[in-house]
Specification:
heterodimer, A: 741 residues, alpha/beta, Rossmann fold, eight-stranded antiparallel beta sheet, six-stranded parallel beta sheet, 38% helix, elongated, B: 156 residues, Immunoglobulin-like, five-stranded mixed beta sheet, four-stranded antiparallel beta sheet
Chain lengths: 741, 156
């Protein structure tokens, strides 16, 4: 809900908000420029009477003296039948230069508050201030939800680079934008008189004025009593009118001063509404608060970046959402399908179920598990289709499911059925599906069907499960799902380095380049110097579809697209269809593959040290992170292999990285040598150093086999115990990330 | 509206020649090309010391900004009865305003002045931008303004 609001409002208003923010940023310089031009004497140094006396020496015919919020003193006087306005030095009363406010600045101001369209434009600007407020508040709520509470708001961020930029910049500028939006909204409300600004109250013109000879301006007590800092405006009396008086405005109030005795007459102090308006006006414009003006201006400058990264984020999310044609509302539907998916393949099955149930005449609602509604009023059936991520964790579209579930109103009419998707080769097969099934049962939901599982996207198993569903709804149902072959691109092998034959672990580092596309688009791309690779970062996944198969196998990427090649590190498994295929490739031969973003596995932003831990082919992305560590942040690599003589993957590169500072420390362990050790042992050996690094904010990235990852987590728990810290805590802070297989 | 008011006053003046109390006066005002938003102008009659007598015309619709026409605002007390039916649109930079108003004969050749206060948003305001003696012989002679007004002429 909050996300839809944030996206929709942001998209609709993006261009106008950018215009408003950029013009505001330009205007934010004015208070500073004015302040640089002004001489501001210390408080208590000059009274208005003194100033008026100095001005009188140089401007005998002065009509008015003003002090701007920046401290500039302006004198109005008549010369050759025209009113002249000069900036004067408050210390001498001497002319500095004629007052010439910038026409450009005035134009920008008009653009900022009315888009040069007068009243209708002012209405739009007021609405935009409200929109800005909605965006800042909804954005802050989303950010807090994303990082898991206010305490973590300053912590590391996850997501695609675009999302991270959006959140990173957003959390810095949010208070500035909030202040600009709130004060802007208030000023708009005052312009349209929804709120009073208190300027309507003017002092009564004095009816009884002392008669006599006018005293010199320096001798008037009411003017002697006002310090220059509190001074706003002094209007001289009409020389032809003996009953005329000075008008005096100060920061605190307004009144009149008689020419004979210099008494303050009909003084009216500013009311609360006026003081509030003036404060808010200054907070918005930075007038007299040049440093605030600059800060707000900098925050405003971020708005175009926020608009663009926000739009891109929305587009990425939209693209990755599967298309559901006929979806009923959550409260109207009699059948609910919730989907937990990491790479969208489960959505394909959900789509097939939706089609079949809709054909059977049911009203079906499909959503991600994270989009669990607070109740399902008319639901008779709840199907949960979910995969499992990593070591038994929730996939990305289901991460919030288990914490949300207790808040959902249990409907006694609803019977649930969970279907898990996974790969039996892994020890935690369908673990998350089992957890979900147990959690639903524990919270009082009625189980309509026992938990079932689908191994490696088996179409037959899915169809069998469909028969059980048919029995449940008492209708014929044919559940057919043909996994769609993902849209792939061709890549050709350009380099391979082979390791590990001697230790029965043949492992290759394979480098591919994009096969040039045909046609105009391809030629244009080459002309522009593109390498033809789709966009990816180190740590993303490449899905490779072996010949005669539709099911992709995923490998972690050891390069990013701007490196100019696609690199993976693959160990040959005797039964592995895809790894055998890859190991058989000769230079120039091709593969079909696509990119799967995996933004959670990469170093978080910031300068904290990075501890990389891996074993075997897990070194691939870790070596990629080091290769791209051109900023030379401290990076430590712990890695385990079998024999330095045979499978020391990336050895030449790592020496180079150590030499040029991209890698700070390298700790390799080998198991098949005399006194062999595992990477866990290396980690435990360095307990003191690792504890210190993590205590001062280091993050940990683990890549490799499941067993190794488990061993490392245990070792680190042991190391961190004295700090009252463990891997689980690091994980919630976003400082511990795993890519296991 | 202002034309209607003006022709109505003209009609009344013509219909009641015997009374001879008022006559139509045309105020012509040419503004400088000062560059900026449209100007608010107040045309009013004062005595020789600048003491307010009567409002002739106010250019500018939004009464919220009238207080910037300082001398006129003070004199008229900004009472709506002072400017009811004698106000119109504000006048753009470099533009001219021509408006016919009703003026009591008693104010002519009796030591009074026509004054014009002017104000523009975000720019300085000019009280008594124009001071023109209100006499039969000065009618038709252009008077230069001190602020936004380039020249002001009244004819009767």
């Amino acid at each position: 809900m909050m996300r839809q609001l944030h996206s929709l409002v942001g998209l609709v208003a993006a261009v106008l908000v950018m215009l408003l923010a950029l013009s505001g940023a330009i205007l934010s310089l004015d208070p500073t420029l004015d302040r640089l031009d002004a001489t501001v004497p210390a408080e208590g140094q000059i009274s208005v009477a003194t100033l008026a006396g100095r001005v009188a020496q140089h401007y005998p015919g002065a009509e008015q003296i003003q002090r701007t919020p920046s401290g500039t003193i302006l004198v109005y006087y008549e010369r050759n039948g025209q009113v002249g306005i000069d900036r004067v030095d408050p210390l001498t009363g001497q002319r500095i230069a004629p007052y010439a406010p910038s026409a450009f600045s005035r134009w920008v101001k008009n653009l900022h508050r009315s888009f040069l369209l007068d009243t209708p434009g002012r209405v739009v600007a007021g609405i935009l201030a409200l929109i800005m407020l909605v965006l800042v508040i909804s954005g802050a709520v989303l950010l807090v939800k994303r990082v898991g509470g206010w305490r973590h708001v300053t912590g590391p961020l996850r997501g695609t680079p675009v999302q991270r930029w959006h959140a990173q910049v957003g959390r810095v500028v949010m208070f500035g934008l909030l202040l600009s939006a709130l004060t802007g909204l208030y000023m708009s409300a005052a312009t349209f008189e929804f709120i009073t600004d208190g300027t309507q109250n003017e002092p009564e013109f004095p009816s009884n004025v002392a008669a006599g000879t006018a005293a010199p301006v320096t001798a008037l007590p009411a003017l002697q009593a006002v310090d220059l800092h509190d001074f706003r405006e002094l209007v001289y009396p009409d020389p032809n009118d003996p009953a005329a008086v000075y008008s005096l405005s100060t920061a605190q109030g307004d009144g009149y001063v008689d020419q004979v005795h210099g008494a303050l007459l009909s003084y009216l102090p500013h009311g609360g509404a006026r003081r509030a308006y003036e404060l808010i006006y200054r907070l918005h414009t930075g007038e007299g608060l040049w440093w605030l003006g600059l800060l707000l201006g900098l925050c405003a400058l971020s708005v175009p970046l926020m608009s663009i990264t926000g739009t891109l984020t929305w587009w990425q999310r939209r693209k990755s959402m599967p298309r559901i044609a006929a979806n009923s509302g959550a409260q109207a539907a009699d059948t609910i399908i919730l989907v937990g998916s990491e790479n969208n393949s489960t959505w394909g099955f959900a789509g097939a179920l939706l089609d079949a149930l809709t054909q059977a005449g049911l009203r079906v609602h499909v959503a991600a598990m994270n989009q669990l509604a607070s109740e399902y009023r008319h639901a008779k059936r709840l199907f949960v289709l979910t995969s499992t991520y990593g070591d038994g964790d929730a996939p990305s579209s289901a991460q919030r499911f288990l914490t949300r579930l207790p808040k959902v109103k249990v409907n006694p009419d609803t019977g649930f059925a969970v279907l898990g998707f996974g790969d039996r080769q892994f020890p935690q097969f369908c673990k998350f599906a089992k957890d979900t099934d147990a959690a639903l049962h524990a919270h009082g939901w009625r189980r309509a069907m026992e938990l079932d599982t689908i191994d490696r996207q088996s179409v037959q198993a899915f169809s069998r499960w469909g028969n059980a569903v048919a029995k449940l709804i008492g209708q014929e149902l044919t559940l057919v799902h043909t996994p769609v072959r993902p849209r792939t691109r061709a890549f050709e092998l350009i380099e391979r380095v082979d390791y590990g034959q001697e230790v029965q672990a043949p492992t290759s580092i394979l480098r591919f380049r994009a096969v040039a596309r045909e046609g105009v688009a391809g030629r244009l791309l080459r002309l522009l110097g593109g390498n033809g690779l789709p966009h990816f970062e180190v740590g993303d996944l490449v899905g490779i579809v072996p010949p005669d198969s539709v099911i992709p196998r995923f490998y972690s990427l050891a390069s990013k697209s701007s490196d100019g090649f696609l690199e993976i590190c693959v160990r040959k498994l005797p039964e592995g269809l895809c790894s055998v295929f890859l190991h058989g490739l000769k230079l120039g031969e091709r593969i079909d593959a696509f990119i799967q973003l995996h933004p959670d596995f990469r170093p978080a932003s910031g300068k904290a040290a990075v501890i990389l831990i891996g074993s075997g082919t897990g070194i691939g992305p870790l070596a990629g992170f080091i290769r791209n560590n051109t900023g030379k942040h401290p990076m430590y690599l712990y890695w385990g292999g079998r024999d330095p003589a045979s499978d020391f993957l990336y050895e030449p590169e790592l020496s180079e990285y150590l030499a040029d500072g991209r890698l700070t420390g390298l700790h390799a362990a080998f198991s098949r040598v005399k006194d062999g050790a595992y990477v866990q042992d290396k980690v435990l050996d360095d307990a003191t150093q690792l504890r210190q690094l993590i205590e001062s904010g280091a993050q940990v990235l683990v890549c490799g086999s499941r067993g190794m990852a488990k061993g490392i987590a245990q070792a680190l728990d042991e190391i961190l115990a004295p700090l009252n810290l463990d891997v689980h805590k690091l994980r919630t802070q976003g400082r511990y990330r795993e890519d296991v297989f | 509206m202002k034309k209607l008011a003006a022709s109505l006053s003209l009609a009344i003046a013509l219909a009641l020649p015997g009374l001879g109390q008022a006559r139509p006066v045309t105020l012509t005002t040419q503004l400088q090309a000062y560059g900026g938003n449209a100007a608010f102008l107040a045309f009013y009659v004062t005595d020789a010391n600048g003491v307010y007598k009567k409002t002739l015309w106010v250019a500018g619709k939004n009464a919220k900004y009238y207080k910037n026409l300082r001398d006129w605002a003070r004199g008229s007390g900004l009472r709506a009865s002072e400017f009811d039916g004698v106000s119109g649109a504000s006048v753009g930079s470099g533009r001219a305003l021509k408006v016919t108003v009703e003026l009591a004969d008693a104010l002519i050749d009796a030591g009074y002045q026509i004054r014009v206060d002017s104000a523009v948003e975000d720019k300085p305001a000019y009280p008594a931008d124009v001071r023109a003696p209100l006499t039969t012989k000065d009618a038709g002679k252009p008077v230069a303004g001190r602020g936004y007004v380039k020249s002001f002429t009244y004819t009767m």
